[in-house]
């Protein structure tokens, strides 16, 4: 289907990287859109061409209701009353990913999940490149999908958040995968976790191959015409098998990769690698290329990354941990005789931190809570937690008490937006301070 936009009143919501990529998309086609941002001082205001009309500070009702097509950035909720009204009136609201999917000519691999999606998308990209494929990776990972259209690619990989999936309708993926679904962004969705899960699962709607978790398969699908590949349990096509201390990535009872011969560390990375292996097999990439990538793959920045080691004290930056389950996973990856000094806090996005209580009972752990919801989190773990206002204050206190054999772990389980620009800024502060104060 060919989509025409020339006679439409087009409005873009959000002056971030996504919004700027949408402006450029339409200008390249000779169409001049309007743009709105809820902030009075959006970061990319200076990137807007002079011929573009814009409004700042709030969603202008007049501009919204006179539009034919609205492209919404992921940071803006689709559930605002004015946008619901626009939809009722028949105004089309889509994401930049929907625009991209209408134009893309090469196969697409789509990856979503509460945790691990950036790592899996990056692993698959590296395997594809090793296999001689021209590949572009974009979406939630920080490179706008629409900018990939300007590059020659044999394959596109989309890393997608639930926010981006809210307004996608025609995405036809060669392979789609939901890595996992646990509670997150409950402050965004009026109907809570059920709605969040439904949006995540919509990635499978038009996909050719569905890569799914065996344990939840019965809840996902009724369409027997689709091709399914499963992972997660020993009944699955792909699974992890432990023999003594060693983890093996397996396919149908065959041991494919011995993780001891790779740079992978921790269960989460084994699972990420397992899913990357399944995707690569489905794309017919040579297994030896997959093994090559795993043999030297290092964790992405801010994802369970050992950033400093001194006096046998490890400082681990897991700032990308923005939900409770990601903190659970980080703790599961640690095997230490000493004390874990855990930095927890920020904006908890209505999440339930009681879910960590059982994990803490099994560990020798001291918890330092900081940020907007730090005091409330500290009250849950009052026997072994302390509240301080900032990450810096917490780290200074911890540095005075750690001893050889201990681990200092930043795995906040919360959004960083209360005190930082993003999780990268939070992680970078942790890296700097860990080297200065240790």
From TrEMBL:
**What pathway does the annotation place this protein in?**
Cell wall biogenesis; peptidoglycan biosynthesis
Classify the main location. cytoplasm
Q: Which GO terms describe its biological process?
A: cell division; cell wall organization; peptidoglycan biosynthetic process; regulation of cell shape
What is the protein's name according to its record? UDP-N-acetylmuramoylalanine--D-glutamate ligase
- What is the primary gene name for this protein? murD
Highest classification ranks of the organism: Bacteria, Pseudomonadati, Pseudomonadota, Gammaproteobacteria, Enterobacterales
Give the originating organism: Buchnera aphidicola (Aphis nerii)
Q: Where is the Mur ligase C-terminal domain?
A: 302-412
The residues listed in the UniProt record as binding ATP, with positions renumbered to this chain, are: 113-119
Entry-linked InterPro entries: Mur-like_cat_sf (IPR036565), Mur_ligase_C (IPR004101), Mur_ligase_C_dom_sf (IPR036615), Mur_ligase_cen (IPR013221), MurD (IPR005762)
GO molecular function list: ATP binding; UDP-N-acetylmuramoylalanine-D-glutamate ligase activity
UniProt entry keywords in alphabetical sequence: ATP-binding, Cell cycle, Cell division, Cell shape, Cell wall biogenesis/degradation, Cytoplasm, Ligase, Nucleotide-binding, Peptidoglycan synthesis
Q: What does this protein do?
A: Cell wall formation. Catalyzes the addition of glutamate to the nucleotide precursor UDP-N-acetylmuramoyl-L-alanine (UMA).
What is catalyzed by this enzyme?
A: UDP-N-acetyl-alpha-D-muramoyl-L-alanine + D-glutamate + ATP = UDP-N-acetyl-alpha-D-muramoyl-L-alanyl-D-glutamate + ADP + phosphate + H(+)
HAMAP family listed in its UniProt record: MurD (MF_00639)
Residue limits of the Mur ligase central domain?
Answer: 111-279
Record Pfam families: Mur_ligase_C, Mur_ligase_M, MurD-like_N
GO CC term, one of those recorded = cytoplasm
């Amino acid at each position: 289907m060919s989509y025409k936009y020339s006679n439409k009143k087009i409005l873009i919501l959000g002056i971030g990287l996504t919004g700027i990529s949408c402006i450029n998309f339409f200008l390249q086609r000779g169409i001049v859109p309007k743009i709105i941002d809820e902030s009075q001082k959006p970061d990319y205001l200076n990137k807007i061409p002079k011929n573009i009309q814009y409004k700042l500070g709030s969603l202008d009702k007049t501009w919204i209701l006179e539009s034919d097509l609205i492209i919404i950035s992921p940071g803006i909720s689709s559930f605002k009353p004015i946008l619901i009204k626009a939809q009722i009136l028949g105004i089309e609201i889509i994401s930049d990913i929907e625009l991209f999917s209408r134009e893309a000519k090469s196969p697409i691999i789509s990856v979503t999940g509460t945790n691990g999606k950036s790592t899996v998308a990056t692993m698959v990209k590296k395997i594809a490149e090793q296999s001689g494929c021209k590949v572009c990776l974009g979406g939630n990972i920080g490179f706008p999908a629409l900018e990939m259209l300007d590059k020659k690619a044999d394959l596109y990989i989309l890393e997608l958040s639930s926010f981006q999936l809210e307004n996608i309708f025609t995405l036809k993926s060669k392979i789609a995968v939901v890595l996992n679904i646990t509670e997150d962004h409950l402050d965004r969705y009026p109907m809570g976790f059920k709605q969040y899960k439904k949006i995540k699962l919509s990635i499978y709607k038009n996909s050719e191959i569905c890569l799914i978790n065996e344990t939840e398969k019965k809840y996902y699908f009724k369409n027997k015409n689709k091709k399914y590949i499963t992972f997660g349990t020993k009944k699955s096509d792909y699974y992890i098998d432990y023999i003594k201390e060693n983890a093996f990535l397996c396919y149908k009872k065959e041991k494919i990769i011995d993780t001891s011969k790779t740079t992978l560390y921790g269960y989460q990375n084994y699972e990420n690698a397992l899913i990357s292996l399944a995707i690569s097999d489905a794309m017919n990439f040579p297994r030896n290329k997959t093994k090559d990538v795993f043999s030297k793959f290092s964790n992405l920045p801010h994802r369970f990354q050992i950033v400093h080691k001194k006096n046998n004290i490890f400082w681990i930056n897991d700032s990308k941990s923005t939900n409770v389950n990601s903190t659970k996973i980080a703790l599961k990856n640690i095997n230490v005789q000493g004390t874990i000094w855990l930095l927890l806090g920020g904006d908890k996005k209505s999440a339930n931190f009681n879910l960590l209580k059982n994990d803490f009972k099994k560990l020798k752990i001291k918890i330092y809570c900081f940020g907007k919801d730090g005091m409330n989190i500290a009250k849950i773990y009052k026997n072994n937690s302390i509240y301080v206002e900032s990450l810096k204050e917490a780290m200074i206190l911890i540095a005075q008490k750690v001893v050889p054999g201990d681990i200092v772990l930043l795995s906040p389980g919360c959004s960083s937006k209360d005190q930082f620009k993003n999780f990268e800024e939070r992680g970078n502060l942790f890296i700097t301070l860990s080297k200065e104060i240790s």
